[in-house]
Design a protein that fits this description.
111 residues, mainly alpha, 5 helices, 0% strand
Length: 111
């Protein structure tokens, strides 16, 4: 027989006041405006690129509000920072060597 322990909720509504709609809405609009063909896959890909550029903002907002972070949170933020840092050489490689300049990537990189 399994015993399921009840988990405590980890979010605090008084601290977590970041409005995600302010990220998802503009990312969706940019995904519709900046794509190569108006197909569902191309719009979804563009939307995901723009949303990925700002996905860390809610975590940074909570970190700034609380002033402290757990170990797992700092590891997560470090991994995201490393990912974004390693994405820059990949972006340069694709633009210079492979010669694939997709404007969606350029706009998201500047974001």
């Amino acid at each position: 027989m399994r015993s399921h322990a009840r988990l405590r909720p980890t979010n605090d509504p008084s601290i977590d006041t970041f409005r995600v709609e302010y990220l998802v809405g503009p990312a969706f609009v940019l995904g519709i405006l900046f794509n190569y063909s108006y197909s569902i896959t191309e719009i979804s890909w563009s939307f995901s690129i723009f949303l990925e550029a700002v996905a860390i903002l809610p975590q940074l907002f909570i970190l700034q509000r609380t002033g402290e972070a757990e170990t797992i949170t700092t590891h997560y933020l470090a991994a995201l920072g490393a990912y974004r840092g390693l994405y820059i050489p990949n972006w340069i490689y694709r633009c210079v060597i492979v010669n694939t300049r997709r404007l969606v990537r350029v706009y998201a990189w500047y974001l």
